[in-house]
Amino acid sequence: MNSLKIFKSLGIYFLIALLVINIFFYIQNKKEAKEISGVKLENIELKQENENMENKVKLFSPTGREQHYNSMVEDTKTFMQSAYVQQKEGYKNRREKAKEIMTRELLDRYFPADTTYQDQITTTIKNDEYFVQQLEPDQKRIDVIVKFDHEMKYLLTGNVDKSQLYAIVTFEKKNNKWIAKKVQDVEADSQSMIQEETKK
């Protein structure tokens, strides 16, 4: 009888010991898993930081900076040709390009219809010059100033309005792409010039 009690007691102590050991290993494994997870997260953050630093170096190296500058000028040229040129020919093509370079709000402003909405005038721009805001790392917004001559021709009368304008085009970065979000016109010098009607 005493042997049975001793055996039962030893069994209970053995189970308790197993339970304590299992709890200990569970806690240890959890700590190790947490430490491994922390190391992995730290490695990911370091990798991202290194990639960001590499991108900054590429962007703001002389070559990268020039490429970024030229890219902003080209994007602004596309915007200007889309927004400030009003002609029946090529309207749909300009509208499609505008979808890629400006917000929906600006698209509705400059292209209110799927087809040309104004048949009585044509507008063109000439002598356009571009001045890009100083480029900095991690920029989310860039202003580009455009100086240009704007001509509006009234097809019924042959009259032409010529203006020298400045446009401030504000770009914002969205999904790694620069999109024109706002434009402000500043008139520098305006004069109306009456042209003779084209001889029949």
Salient structural properties:
single chain; 200 residues; alpha+beta; four-stranded antiparallel sheet; 4 helices
Give an account of the 3D structure.
The chain contains 4 helices and 4 strands; from the N terminus they run ααααββββ. By secondary structure, it is an alpha+beta fold. Helix 2 (62-83) packs across helix 3 (91-101). The longest helix is centred in the N-terminal third of the chain and has 58 residues, at 2-59. The model is unreliable at 190-200 (pLDDT under 50).
SSE layout:
Elements: H1 2-59, H2 62-83, H3 91-101, H4 104-110, E1 121-132, E2 141-154, E3 160-174, E4 177-193
Antiparallel strand pairs: 1-2, 2-3, 3-4
Helix pairs in contact: 2-3
